[in-house]
Predict the structure.
Amino acid sequence: MIFKLLILLFAFSLYSKDYEQFIFELNQEDPDNNYVEIFEYYREYPINIYKTNSIELSRLPNISFALADEILIKINNNTWNELKSLNKLSELEIFIIENCTNVLGKNINSYNFRSRFINNLEDKKGFVNDNFKGNKIDLYNRVGIKYQDFNFNLILNKDEGEISYADDYSINLSYNYKNNKIIVGDIRAHTGYGLLLNSGFPIRKSSNPSDVLLSFGNGFTPSRNLLSFGNFRGVAYENDFLINKFRIKSRILFSNTNRSSTINDNIVTSFYTTNLFRTENEIVKKNNLNENIIIANSEVNYNNLLFGFNYLNYNYNKILETQSQNYYTGNNGNNYSFYSRYLLNNSSFNYEMTADNNNNISHLLIYNYFDRNIDFGFSYKYLHPNSRLQYNNLLTNYSTNSNEESYFSYLTIKNNNFKNTLFIDFYNRPKIDLFLDLPQSGIDIFNEITFKLNNNINFLNRIRLRNYKDFTKTNPNYFDVNRLDLRNEISYNGKIDFRIRLDLVNNEFSEDRYKGFGYLIFGEINNRLFKSNQTSFRFTYYDTDSFNEAIWHYEYLVRGYLTAPPLYNQGYKIIFKSSIEFLKNYLLSFAFTYDKALDFDKFGSGLDEINSNQRTRLYLQLDYNLK
């Protein structure tokens, strides 16, 4: 998040060609908002700024709901140049809007290519024991072509240990003509607020709560990723038309997709979602379950009032009997949802209700107030304890989506030099899976302050307190967990940029079961060695009592590649990365990471275990973009 603030404060000092690089860097500290995916998608599929709404426009990086609302109010009565002056937009905001909307009236043809190679220097246990059937090469290739109203995307991926260089792939072709869109191939679907349908990246809490809370879907889009449950393979059609003052959108999707699963006695006991097919046991799970999906969606928008309806029908060629709450049961079924939105001055009222195959009803209610200096929101979420909504994606308190009840509120206050974000979440989960009726509940309090001390120095302070009930499964026995996380960070922006961060973690279990402490400190330097170069060096030292105090740090290594390994026990990590632009349209990126353990002798577990107290990885990537 600190990168995002730095960009806003110092945008005037950057060359316009640098903005794209910094868009990608936004994900380093706030990856849950997935700025990379959003920017790349809307650059190829620009928003029609004369037909859109504040929610869709505010999806763009650094475009707040309040700013989007101001732009849309004035865009019909002012030229773009007049509007830029009226709203005092920063150069970065102008760059984003001009690249991701049709405000300039351009239809630009483009071609882009990305190839990424990753090498782990130390051998994993799967190679040592010959469990992995493929070689060590980890290779990713992506091609995107936009020509007039056509767009083509292809991704080929091979993880180390896999056999084929196209072991995982995604392909699609789309056509946009006036108010019609058709997509053939791999498709992502997101409608309403995600209570029924959002096949994108998982949503997590962040220091931008409004961005994740008000995640309103834009229908069917060509897939640009390899999420195991993010793609529907089939055909989709969308139509957008105006009758008097009523704007109506109708969408339909038919998909026939092979999923990967664990099957016992011809019954699916679990879905396999890692996308790793290296061993015989993993390979036998690949694409062994056929899924047929039909999705129909309709939206009606009149002035500031919107109503939408979803219908989803699923059919499988085998019976599903999974223990997890995240997946369907049986062979087939129907899901429904209804959603609405009402915009009033600086407020929005949002609601979605859905029913699963057994008519278990779930609700999501969101209120949001916004202007340039204040952003406030409240939501009530209730997912029925027995609901099975396989393709929903909501803000939850666990590593996977959970059937929980939650009261979530947030407040953001900001001006040119200061920003404070507070959120409080009360939540309750009645049961953790199909068989264990073990309720969990807790409270999550988060506060972050970012402050511009002067033209070069910025300070960040973050406090997060989590108190929740946990238990041991073998002999159900409840105990309270109190975890306190503190972060202080100072950054300097000048000819050479640097930042220093200190994280502290204190963890206590009730009844004197456990007490733990951990800390992490890192220093990072960013510099432009020459005009077309970006270079960064980070050194991190960490020391925690156990995995309970693990500290996750996002590492954005090359464009489009993000990792977030937990750092725990005692050790240090070095990250060096550098990129260079050449021949106008090429970008060559290199990254090196080195982990050193000081009090343990192995990294990883299972077949990914490295029998060494050090781990070294190399990343090499080539990007080509032609417009």
